[in-house]
Design a protein that fits this description.
This protein has helices at residues 10-14, 35-44, 47-55, 59-79, 85-125. By secondary structure, it is mainly α. Helix 2 (35-44) packs across helix 4 and helix 3 packs across helix 4 (59-79). The structure holds zinc ion. Zinc ion (ZN) binds next to helix 1.
């Protein structure tokens, strides 16, 4: 039996598989000692990698992005155990709400300023109209 030892990918090591086949779907994404796999395993369990891969319509083209998303979601869940990435979305939505308020306020001041400029220009052109 050919011993690959540490050549097994992180998923095959986690499954305690005897070998990691040369065409293992996970090897390119999760080499031995992969920190990404370790984070995903810790948060969601190692099975989620296979489940995610199995759910992809075009796994060969989509696996890299799907596994990157899993890793980022695991990061968010480690940072915010309650809300995960939804917590990040909530913070950004609040920032958007506040910035829209600021923009509305600035637009109001600008409109007022433009009215004053128009009024001053009118008075300057026709100084006797106010008498
Ligand atoms: Zn493998």
């Amino acid at each position: 039996m050919a011993m690959h030892g540490s050549a097994r990918c992180a998923l095959c090591q986690w499954r305690k598989a005897d070998e990691c086949p040369a065409d293992c779907h996970f090897r390119p994404h999760f080499p031995a000692g992969s920190q990404a796999f370790e984070k995903i395993r810790r948060v969601y369990g190692g099975n989620v990698v296979e489940i995610t891969y199995g759910a992809l319509p075009f796994p060969e083209q989509q696996a890299r992005l799907a596994f990157l998303a899993l890793e980022r979601e695991a990061d968010a869940r480690i940072e915010n155990p309650v809300m995960g990435s939804l917590g990040t979305v909530a913070v950004l939505e609040e920032q958007i709400r506040r910035l829209r308020e600021q923009l509305a306020s600035v637009e109001q001041k600008l409109a007022l300023f433009q009215q004053q400029v128009a009024l001053l220009r009118q008075q300057h052109l026709h100084p006797n109209n106010n008498l």
